[in-house]
Amino acid sequence: YVCTFPSEDQGPMSYICEVRRMIEVYCADIGVEKASEEDVRELEDFLQNMENYIENDSLFVYYDRKFHFKIAEITRNPVIMSILKSLEVLFAQLQHALIHLEGQKARAMNEHKQIFEFFKNRDKKKLLEAIGVLHDGVMKSWIQVCQNRKMNSAG
């Protein structure tokens, strides 16, 4: 059902961005209260691997996805995990479309580090703000990709 959408400018991926944001805000809100110390250590490991593989696009995206899936897993809600798994291909397409934008990986690392720190410190308010900042950046980057595609197809 990713065929007809009212906006030609941003296409169906902008709707995927909205859904992803809703799910991740919920997951962070619930997960920050349920996370064990082991959960926090796993998040930190995924973050460290993102940093270790910042020059390898595939592994960087892989550990980025693992980071987000871990936050969802912490909710202990199997329906959320099912929804995320059903959307995984679309999320991966989005990330692979954005990864080559200038400064994208550095921005992502900074935002993920903030998310992790607020999660670790159980600061729900700042965590949810940081999740919002990350998703605002994703949406801005997606709009940039769409504009670049339009310019390339027009020329």
Order of helices and strands: HHHHHH
The number of E-state strands comes to 0
Structural class: mainly alpha
Query: What about the largest sheet?
Result: none
Mean pLDDT equals 88
What helical percentage do the residues reach?
over 70%
Instruction: Supply the number of helical segments.
Output: 6
Strand content: under 5%
Distance between the termini: 31 Å
The parts where pLDDT drops under 50 for at least 5 residues are: 1-6
Shape: globular
Return Rg in Å: 16 Å
Annotation keywords:
155 residues; mainly alpha
Short synopsis of the structure:
The chain is mostly helical and 155 residues long.
Describe what you observe in this structure.
This protein is mostly helical. The chain has six helices and no strands. The radius of gyration is 16 Å and the shape is globular.
What topology does this entry show?
Elements lengths: L12 H22 L2 H16 L4 H18 L3 H21 L5 H17 L3 H31 L1
